[in-house]
Amino acid sequence: MVERGLVRRRAHPTHGKILEMSVTAAGVEPALQGGGVLEPCERGALRAFLPEEQEQGREHLHRMPGTLSPRALGAAGPPDETHGA
Fold first, then answer.
1. Measured CA distances, 40 to 28, 37, 46 (Å)
2. Cα gap 50→76, rounded to integer Å
3. Nearest 5°: phi and psi at 21?
4. Positive/negative CA dihedral, 23, 27, 32, 36
5. R_g of the chain computed on alpha carbons
6. Distance of alpha carbon 29 from its chain centroid, rounded?
7. Quick check: helix, strand or coil at residue 8?
8. What SS3 state is found at 32?
9. pLDDT tens digits, 5-48
10. Can you give the pTM of this predicted structure?
């Protein structure tokens, strides 16, 4: 996804071991649509967990898009007042 320009990674400004990832402008629409474009990232993120933990993590990840506003994903626009953004 980084190579496709959908997300970017950068070092955290104060924590040397943290790598921040954020959605780019090009990645907003695919992130909102979900589907196959996010599956490789999901698999990678869950790889370190036990199978039952992976399933629970997957369930949480699949619920997230419904709670995120386009603004939370980096798109321009007014705040989504229903989610306190």
1. 16, 7, 10
2. 38
3. -120, 140
4. negative
5. 14
6. 12
7. strand
8. helix
9. 888 888 888 888 888 888 888 888 877 776 676 678 888 889 99
10. 0.38
Q: Which of 81, 70, 63, 78 is nearest to 28 (CA)?
A: 70
Residue 24's nearest CA partner among 36, 10, 43, 35 is 10
Higher-scoring residue by pLDDT: 18, 64? 18
Residue 46: strand, helix, or coil: helix
The Cα 43–Cα 40 span in angstroms is: 5
Q: Which residue has the higher pLDDT, 61 or 65?
A: 61
Name beta bridge partners: 21. 9
Q: Tell me the torsion sign for CA atoms 31, 32, 36, 39.
A: positive
**DSSP bridge partners of 22:** 8
Nearest to 20 by CA among 71, 78, 74: 74
